[in-house]
Amino acid sequence: MPTSEGDLTVHPDAMQVGCLCGHRKTGAYLYGVSLHRDGFDLHLMLKFVCIFRYSKDVTIVSFPVCIESHKYKRNKMLFNLGFAFDSNSYTGDYEPVCRKIAKYLRESELRDEFLSNPETKVRLPEFMIRLREELLTTGQCSFQINEWCLIYVHLPVTLPEPPDVWDFYVPVMVRQAERQQIRDEWDGTLKRVYPHIDGKNHVADIAHKAAVDTVLVRKCIQHLVYYQICVLVDIFQYGNTYMVTPAINTLYNDGPLQAQCCVYVHDKDAAPPHISTIFSLYTRLSADKDVSTFCEENEQALVGVDVLRFIQFGMVFGILRCVRRWPVVVNDCTAENRTNSPTKKTVFSVPDQIKRMFTGGVPFDEVCYKLCVSASSLAEAVTLDPTTTIIKK
């Protein structure tokens, strides 16, 4: 192991490869010599992944292995493959990798003397370089040690926590349905829910059509979102407002994504649209124009385009962002000014029990869902009441 503080000085027979995590002193190391060190009980650590902080800058993760046999000097061979990291790096993902590689190398040594034979151990630098490079770039590595041993390791994929699923959200499949086979081991509830996820039904609709409790449906969809089988979008309404995001540049530069977009948004009753038309339509969406107005202004350009799928594709790939509406109750001064406005000739009062939801923290879609009213009806009621208004953000 390293012997001088602050520097990775290794035994002359040891091998080292490159930089693993951006630190000039970090990398992958394989030691094929005795690893005795003051205060370090190797025999105690042979059964465990060894993690120790060598200096204030470097942490080493390794898995020491001892093979006892009369053919070795001192009747045993000790080796250790490890990774050196910056001291503040998370090393948990590399611990199972160290353990698995150590077991592969041990079996290769016992069967073919891979580590002790000078003719075969010359392949170790190649293996270590590939291990480091491929784990950094792809998170996985495969290497053919000999005719019978193929080493395959991969870093665990850490998926982000799924968002909360609300009854008014619409799940949209992002993988082709025919590739997602409903397996026998799937939960019975998921089997009933899955066929009703069509990109149009919101969670409450799915629960009703599948005859499943809404709480269970939310859990099922949350699992599908976690495993990246579907994503959640807002209920499509012609009163919604959308605007493009910087991800529109991805659509401009990505040819395969353009082809996928043309196929997805195509209205089967007309000729398929060209990507230039679709791109132009996306750029015409703005925060001050709802979908209904957008459709009226671009009637000719929308020939061959399914508006629902056009919006959904933009939401799924982050090309569009829904400008959400939040009903709020305004103060008395603002209400008086709005009452005197020429556009407020008719005065209407939203019931107090409904106004209690107008806190600015409950989205418009959720209010519509809980009241079982259409978006246009609620929007009209809020507009006619001088004490309420809608904030878009």
From TrEMBL:
Segments forming a coiled coil: none
GO cellular component: GATOR1 complex; vacuolar membrane
Top-level taxon in the UniProt lineage: Eukaryota
Signal peptide: none
GO MF annotation list: GTPase activator activity
Listed Pfam families: NPR2 (PF06218)
A Gene Ontology biological process term: positive regulation of autophagy
Entries under InterPro entries matching the protein: NPR2-like
Family assignment from sequence similarity: Belongs to the NPR2 family.
Family matches, as PANTHER family: GATOR COMPLEX PROTEIN NPRL2 (PTHR12991:SF10), NITROGEN PERMEASE REGULATOR 2/TUMOR SUPPRESSOR CANDIDATE 4 (PTHR12991)
Name of the molecule in the record: Nitrogen permease regulator 2
